[in-house]
Amino acid sequence: MARRSGKIGAVVALMVTSASLAIAVPSHALGHPVTRPTIYPAPTSMVLTSGTLALGTSVVLITAPGTDPETVARVRDVLTAAGVKTIASARRLPVAPDRVHIVLGLRDSGVVRDSLSRSKATLDTHAEGYTLAVVAAGAGIVTLAGHDADGLFHAVQTFRQLARRPTLPALVIQDHPAMPIRGTIEGFYGAPWSMADRTRHLDFLATVKANTYVYSPKDDPYARDRWREAYPAATLSALGTLAQTARRNHVDFVYAVSPGPSVCFSDPADVQALERKFDALRAIGVGSFYVALDDIEYTKWNCERDKTAFGPSGAEAAGVAQAQLLNAVQASLSAKDLGARALIMVPTEYYDAKETPYKAALRKHLDPRIVIQWTGTDVVPPAISIPDAKAATKAFGRKTLLWDNYPVNDYAQTTGRLLMAPYARREAGLSGELTGILSNPMNQEAPSRPAVTGVAAFGWNDTAYDAERTWHFSARELAGGDERATAALLTFFDTQHMAPTFGSQPWQEQAPRLKAALDAVREALADGDAAARQRAIADLTERADEIASAPDIIRAGTIDPSFAAQARPWLDAMQRWGRALQLTAAGLGAADSGSIAAARYFDDARTLAREAAAITTIPGATRFDGPIKIADGVLDAFVSDAPTLIAAASAIEADGAVPVRSDGPK
């Protein structure tokens, strides 16, 4: 017995020794590898080091002097969401921290330099750049160091994503944007966003490291038809509040006016009217401005004075006249604010890069500081390449700011659609030929976010951009990380995958995932044996269940209720189409077993399909009202074709038995 006890004691001693050693051994050495996190937009550089770090329930936050209070507040929110209960404060790093210390500040701070040195990291030196370092040794240090205030704010967005993991991987991220301007232009026709929509949108833009929002709704009368008139006090106040929200989110709020339909280019009074408009916006905190000259008739003058000043109307004369007006506005902006951002304009010839008299006039006469927007090779281009952008640079005499008309749904070909495919077919490397990229979103703000997430990620790091993975990330963000809601959203997105152009050919196909699944069913029914047919029908039933249940999951599972509200008719129609597909699957199952019930299932499916196809858009929400499209050309075609895929039983046998196929289930 004594010798046996000795063996037990030795085992216990070995276990204790092993447990003690585990404290000192990095996690990856114990079979827990340090995995590379996915961050969106993709960082410029990410290097894993050694070990992982748990934040725990108590941390010390060291904020360098001069750090933006809003940025500090965002860090505290991230820590609280990660389960930290106590956030203490300190001014400097101790020699041997007793718990996790988080250092936050700009490059010129001594405590930031000290923290970077201990992390063996260097600061990213680009505009809007940052370095984020996690050291797992000892109690742990997390450094968020910004090249500037914007960069530090972006670092917090990366930290927000990292802190969702159970532990932080030890790493060094050095990151900065590829394009100086990234964001959205609310430039669509139809019902403008509400101020609440815009506020939510600005909060969202911050999470994807976008830095620009252009206020340019076509149906704001005080920005277009009545542009010379002052805004009502209440509207001006609301715009001021919006500008404050943008500043908190480190987003440049750009105000756009569209005087083209009525402006007299040579009249000093109209130049003064533009200056008054911008002065009023400057007084409420707006510092960036834009003049839109798109969608106007430039082969005729709005006033006789312009004919005298510029000669007969025409494309070249229009370019000269517009340049004169814009140069005067740019000079006024610079005189009133030496640090003002350059004026942005969208020309009348805003698409293609063909050499024309109009473009030549702008190239020759327009102040080189003024930024020109360009929509690509067409109003809605199917793709944009580096040579396309180079051609635009040559045509306009400067690198352009891309106005990408995706996912906007204000033209006839988009009637009944939400455009929710991944942002794709823009060539990596475009950052070398563009000053930036702005997405023109849909009338529906929240459903626009998947596409806008892609635009922002492409603008941040176009060479590392992955459309599909970024698309999945956008679904997870809308779902608040819930896997079931994420899957439901991706199912919904697939039914809204078609991206039209102004022509007859779309640049993204409709419902590619669902089409692949339904094609597989068709093939199995046509070529498979009995077991293959049954598996295909079972798979179809499962897919139909996913479609039918997705709307309720989305309504309950998305973290922003505005998504479900703005997508309501699409979710309603999707649910009916899902039920129609469930009945179709039941009909195929009945037909495969030889049951005359198949006909009833198919009839009920057709009834539901008609009901689904009759659901229309929310009146007035988009420029063109019409019937909702759900995986059109794919789902409706399958429901229609299904009764012809298996010959159903036509009668009950004389003895009342249901005839069955000899190779089917009994």
Describe this structure in words.
The chain is an alpha/beta fold. The chain is 43% helix and 13% strand. The strands form two sheets. An eight-stranded parallel barrel has the order 8-9-10-11-12-13-14-15, surrounded by four helices. The chain has a seven-stranded mixed β-sheet with strand order 1-7-5-6-4-2-3, sandwiched between helices. The protein is built from 20 helices and 15 strands. It is globular. Residues 1-31 and 651-666 have low confidence and may be disordered. The protein has helices at 2-24, 69-81, 110-118, 149-162, 195-207, 233-248, 268-282, 304-310, 315-336, 357-365, 386-396, 449-460, 467-478, 483-495, 512-527, 530-557, 561-566, 568-592, 597-613, 635-641; strands at 45-53, 58-63, 86-90, 101-106, 130-135, 141-146, 168-175, 181-186, 212-215, 252-257, 288-292, 344-346, 371-374, 400-404, 434-439. α14 packs across α16 (530-557).
Computed CA radius of gyration, to the nearest angstrom? 30 Å
Q: What is the CATH level 1 assignment of the largest domain?
A: Alpha Beta
Percent in helix: 40-55%
What is the makeup of the main sheet? 8 strands, parallel, barrel
Q: Indicate the CATH topology of the largest domain.
A: TIM Barrel
Number of helical regions: 20
Helix and strand layout, with pairings?
Layout: H1 2-24, E1 45-53, E2 58-63, H2 69-81, E3 86-90, E4 101-106, H3 110-118, E5 130-135, E6 141-146, H4 149-162, E7 168-175, E8 181-186, H5 195-207, E9 212-215, H6 233-248, E10 252-257, H7 268-282, E11 288-292, H8 304-310, H9 315-336, E12 344-346, H10 357-365, E13 371-374, H11 386-396, E14 400-404, E15 434-439, H12 449-460, H13 467-478, H14 483-495, H15 512-527, H16 530-557, H17 561-566, H18 568-592, H19 597-613, H20 635-641
Helix pairs in contact: 2-4, 5-6, 9-10, 12-13, 13-14, 14-16, 15-16, 16-18, 18-19
